[in-house]
Amino acid sequence: MDELRRDGILWYKIHVFVYDLRNFRSSDKSRDRLESVVDTYYIGPPYFSATEADNILHTIADPETGKILREILDDFFAQKLEKRIKARTKETADYRVCAAHDLAPIVEKAFRIHPKDLAKNKGFVKLLNKRGLGALSEGGVWKGLGKR
Question: Which pTM does this prediction carry?
Fold first, then answer.
């Protein structure tokens, strides 16, 4: 986790990913970025390179169990998601993963990102709206959310 935090650009992109998961329905830009992801775990372009995605998926996401993010997502897709899809399909005929309700909590917990802190961080939201996902690569500055 510390290695990811030290890479300011990658840490910013992780936060953009979380922001987009939470704002999929309310932000066209968030929706466009998420809908372009083709990775099974949703951890891939346009957010992350193959190397970045591999590092993220191999990050210990649950210190208590020692599980990496890939294992947690595998468990989710294999068990919980199957039940949720069955229930949702009966009710709405919608089988898709819900970014805000299904994936966001997993990623937020894994990276200890609090969605309200992210949404309230005016500097982050302004930078994202003005310069997008590549903001830091293009010279933008973001100092993080601060410590809780």
Answer: 0.86
